[in-house]
Specification:
Elements: H1 2-11, E1 14-17, E2 23-26, E3 34-37, H2 40-61
Antiparallel strand pairs: 1-2, 2-3
Length: 79
């Protein structure tokens, strides 16, 4: 489920070329998940890495995470 969620979240990513020729990427609705890189491939890779770290931290802290194309990650409380 985690991998599918990341895959769907990455489909939401937006990229643009900045004036200095570098690439900027972010995922709308995923506050703070953004990167700047030298080329598009690096930008995508770094964005996914930032997303994964952001999700792990959010899950550990019990944050309500955004939906990604109909998929939600929810932490179940231990019995």
């Amino acid at each position: 489920m985690f991998t599918k969620y990341i895959h769907e979240a990455m489909k939401l990513a937006k990229y643009k070329i900045l004036e200095d020729g570098t690439y900027y990427g972010d995922i709308p609705g995923f506050r703070g998940v953004l990167v700047n890189a030298e080329n598009l491939e690096e930008c995508r890779d770094e964005l996914q890495e930032v997303l994964e770290e952001w999700l792990i931290l959010g899950l550990r802290l019990g944050h309500d995470l955004p939906e990604a194309n109909g998929i939600r990650l929810v932490v179940a409380e231990a019995a």
